[in-house]
Amino acid sequence: MSVLSCPLPIPTDEFVVLGHGSGGRLSARMMEETFLPAFRNTALERGDDQGVFEAPAGRIAMSTDSYVVKPLFFPGGNIGELAVYGTVNDLAVGGATPKYLSAGFILEEGLSLDTLRQIVDSMSHAARRCGVEIITGDTKVVEKGSGDQIYINTAGVGFIPSGINYSAANVRPGDKIILSGSLGDHGITILAQREGMELGGDLHSDSAPLHLLCAAAMAAAPTLHAMRDLTRGGLSSALNEIAQKSGNGMEIDQRAIPVSEVVRGACELFGLDPLYVANEGKMIAFVPAAEAAASVAAMRNIETGSEARIIGEVTEKHPRMVTMRTSLGTERIVDMLAQDQLPRIC
Amino acid sequence: MSVLSCPLPIPTDEFVVLGHGSGGRLSARMMEETFLPAFRNTALERGDDQGVFEAPAGRIAMSTDSYVVKPLFFPGGNIGELAVYGTVNDLAVGGATPKYLSAGFILEEGLSLDTLRQIVDSMSHAARRCGVEIITGDTKVVEKGSGDQIYINTAGVGFIPSGINYSAANVRPGDKIILSGSLGDHGITILAQREGMELGGDLHSDSAPLHLLCAAAMAAAPTLHAMRDLTRGGLSSALNEIAQKSGNGMEIDQRAIPVSEVVRGACELFGLDPLYVANEGKMIAFVPAAEAAASVAAMRNIETGSEARIIGEVTEKHPRMVTMRTSLGTERIVDMLAQDQLPRIC
Fold first, then answer.
1. Which residues of B touch A59 (CB under 8 A)?
2. pTM (2 decimals)?
3. Looking at the partner chain, which of A27, A90, A138 has a beta carbon nearest the beta carbon of B50?
4. Which residues of B touch A166 (CB under 8 A)?
5. Sheet with A331-333, edge to edge strand ranges
6. Closest CA–CA distance from residue A79 to any residue of chain B (Å)
């Protein structure tokens, strides 16, 4: 194609064209007709190049993720919802109250505007559910074949209550490891969808916001050390990362780790290990033993934590390593995989 | 391709593979070997899912942009530098002191790791120049053919000094419109590069950070109303947007608007209008008449503002419209284009 664009014959009110990313009238119309009605708030309505918010003095958490999940829609969620919950969760596990998001869209020429609107409406709904506002954004359009329908980046900020300072580095020997629920639902849902397989059961992504669950764990455990949500790489990546950062070992018990029948069956079928499969609504918390029972009880009161339980503890015995007592009673090392079992999972 | 990834024969220390976006060992190695050495700071080194910073009580600006410029490297800059300056500039024109950035990378399978490192080093250099830190990030990898080498999103936050409240909506009739320098250098550089044309002269992108220039304008004009950087859609889009938001008219004088010989020549050749061509290091400020001369003088003391001048003023006469007195003495409407003259300019 020529770098000089010509008027396109395709209808600009049905499909994304390069002009929607131009900063001209088509961009302005997309803002007026698609983004503003969904995200409406004072900061966005000002129409300036930056959103502005008022913050108290203190510590602020900032996080970002790009979302490239394929397919865009799957049982239990879609890319838009994921783009809000994922970033909200990264803030929440840091002890922050998620407050404001930015949203950056990279659209492929030819994307249906109906699809875009569905995704944007999902983001709006997800944001309301989390009590966050999308206060600034950007849209770029790339030529057909240079993208894959839609990629979304969100960045978020959240306020950290005074006295809270969670970090992987703070995890200590003796800490109990609490897992919020069953593993692998998101990854296996995406896999089944891509392969066009009907796995039965009520298989759907666990895509969910964790801000209330994190707040419950924090309130019940005044000396909580760290939390982490389990996304790409699953439980094993999160545990290995924290083992590395804290210099401690992790011991978990396979019998304590919930995995649904359908996920377990699919993992056997595909030769996958649920410990490595992605989740989008699960987290782990590292809590001193004395506060662990209260934390589990508090988490179980929250919908996304109804299956919360202690799955192991932190040890000095084998620094920087994760080991698991299997359901057969043997012990094995849970290593970090070199690469993912499933690309483009989120 | 199968959704189940197999060990790839291509060397993972020379090229990006899907596993680099997996959250596993390859992701960790890319973090250790590429991102951490370039961006090194306390927040990033903690290795948590969020960067944390301390903020005073007050107003905070947040902005985001995705960068999809093609080609990745061009005379005067590259996508990495642009990704830092662009977001810094969006904060600076809001009166904020840019402080912290997030960086989200969408890499296409097969990208050379050398290219990635060059881009990341450029981001690191650009961040130091602006006094900002990149405190959190994310990397996703998409299959070959689902991206175009590299897309970068940055989001940024900056602190707004107390008493500062700039917005397009604040612009008032009688305000002088100050332009910081000549138009069209970035857009014409990209165009020439894509077409493989040698236009002569010292043609290069004006890619530059504007935080010092904005600070100078602010210091010299205590009642400055708004600033805006001129990117996609050029001067015309910025003026039209502000005319819309403020409900006022804008009158500019073509003879006052600097355009270099080589840009003017290229625009004639390609049938482009410099008013619509993208810039990456230019801004406009709206300043009450009494403070305009002092503002211009202060801006000229800053390298990026050495050609600053008054190019027109805000009027009640034709609300929401931009008009220009041409070099022939006639008057014409400067409309907003429906779509861009040049896609993927930033």
1. 52-55
2. 0.96
3. A90
4. 48
5. A226-229, A283-287, A176-179, A309-315, A249-253, A322-325, A331-333
6. 14
* pLDDT at res. B343: 87
CA distances from B261 to A296, B179, B276 (A): 71, 18, 17
Q: Does the beta carbon of B94 lie under 8 angstroms from any beta carbon of chain A?
A: yes
Domains of chain A by residue range: 18-160, 168-333
Residue located via tokens 């666990």: A206
Taken in order B294, B297, B298, B299, is the CA torsion positive or negative? positive
Q: What is the CATH number of domain A168-333?
A: 3.90.650.10
Residue A133 sits at the chain B interface (C-beta within 8 Å): no
ipTM value for the complex:
0.96
Per-residue pLDDT of B250-269, as tens digits, reads 999 999 999 999 999 999 99
User: Which pLDDT value is given to residue B155?
Assistant: 98
Average of per-residue pLDDT across B131-140:
98
Between vectors from CA B20 to CA A208 and to CA B143, what angle results, nearest 5°? Answer: 85
- Residue B188's identity, in one-letter code, is I
CB < 8 Å to B145, chain A? 145
User: Where do runs of H (alpha helix) occur along A131-246?
Assistant: 185-195, 211-220, 234-246
Under an 8 A CB cutoff, do A18 and B343 touch?
yes
The residues near A117 (Cβ < 8 Å, ≥ 6 apart) are A34, A38
Alpha helices in chain A (DSSP H): 25-30, 36-39, 42-45, 79-92, 113-130, 185-195, 211-220, 234-246, 261-270, 289-300
Q: Does pLDDT of A6 surpass 60?
A: no
Q: Which two tokens stand for residue A194?
A: 């891509």
The residue to which tokens 């969760």 are assigned: A89
Per CATH, which fold does A18-160 belong to? 60s Ribosomal Protein L30; Chain: A; (3.30.1330)
Does this chain's domain B18-160 share its CATH topology with B168-333?
Answer: no
